[in-house]
Amino acid sequence: MVAYRRFGLMVIRPADHGIFASSAGGGGAGSAEGGFFGGGVVSGTLKDMVDKFAFSDDSRTTLGTALSAATKGLSAMANSGTAGYFAGGNTGSAVSTVDKYVFSTAPRTTLGTGLSAATQQLAAMADSGTAGYTGGGYAASEVSTVDKFDFSDDSRTTLGTGLSSARYQLGAMANSGTAGYFAGGHTGTPVNTIDKFDFSDDSSSILGTGLSYNTQWNAGMANSGTAGYFGGGVYGVTKLDTVDKYDFSDDSRSTLSTGLSAATQMLGAMANSGTAGYFGGGTTGRPVDTVDKFAFSDDGRTTLGTGLSVAREFLAGMANSGSL
Q1: Rounded to an integer, what distance in angstroms lies between the CA atom of residue 219 and that of residue 217?
Q2: Average pLDDT for consecutive 10-residue bins of the chain (324 residues)?
């Protein structure tokens, strides 16, 4: 591994069935469990595709219904077993759009109520079954805003207490049912701060142990009930392969001996909670299609033989792991 490392974004749960066909084409979101990587950019060209990875065999399909617009710098979260959401980003300028994918029937809808402001380079996480949260990002400047979406009706409120500092290019993940975490980002300089939001009352605190490096453009995912992971990003000008692991029992941090397969920033992440987490895409100096898989049983890393349908950076990930 390189001298520095990094981290990443999102949460969910086990899956042992899923059906996939071709590696591209008309697949829908479908009812089978799987993870989704959406949006991004390659050489200035924005992308609208959403790739789905079936958790049963890690095969990839590209959804027939793409995002409502080609978008970079977006965020993603999921109400596992029900629907996933891609929020905000840049389609040429910052947007407040929230696209919703219903897992059982596949169609995409765009919420009538989007983010409270057009925002890019933000992060998102979810308390599955209850609500999803988008945090931070860049509007006219860095923001500390945290928007909450009630999964019962997709209504939006904005928390009275936002992030501890206005920042963008951060990552997020969640211990569903307990708490969510926003980590790192850029406030003018990169930071290692992790803000924790208690789902019982949406109160926030700052972890005594932050990221192992001041990091921006990281991503996060989680094995809900056990541990969360932040991976990749950039420290100054040094891209990171670091994966930091947080034990949900006490929020203690360890750094995995096996990091990402390459130092990468601007990546996405998602997880099959109870089984494995995935970091996908990003840039190592050029956009990549790599998807690294970390088995939660021993944190061992493998790299999928089939990566993203298109190498891209500035993307986001979320997952359907069934009921959490």
Answers
A1: 7
A2: 33 29 41 90 96 97 96 98 97 98 89 97 98 97 98 98 97 98 97 98 97 98 98 97 98 97 98 98 98 98 97 98 74
Q: How far apart are CA 163 and CA 235, in angstroms?
A: 21
Measured between its terminal Cα atoms, the distance across the chain in Å is 33
Residue whose C-alpha is closest to residue 7's, from 260, 297, 311: 260
**Tokens representing residue 120 in the block:** 């890019």
Q: Is residue 124 a contact partner of residue 151, using CB atoms and an 8 Å limit?
A: no
Is residue 132 classed as helix, strand or coil in its secondary structure? strand
The structure tokens listed for 193 are 């701060």
DSSP string, 134-164: EE--BSSSB---EEEEETTT--EEE-SS--S
Q: Are 319 and 34 in contact (CB under 8 A)?
A: yes
- Unique residue bearing structure tokens 């057009």: 118
Show the domains of the chain with their CATH numbers: 8-320 (2.120.10.80)
Q: Which of 109, 148, 7, 124 shows the shortest CA–CA distance to 76?
A: 124
Question: Do residues 242 and 232 make contact, with C-beta atoms less than 8 angstroms apart?
Answer: yes
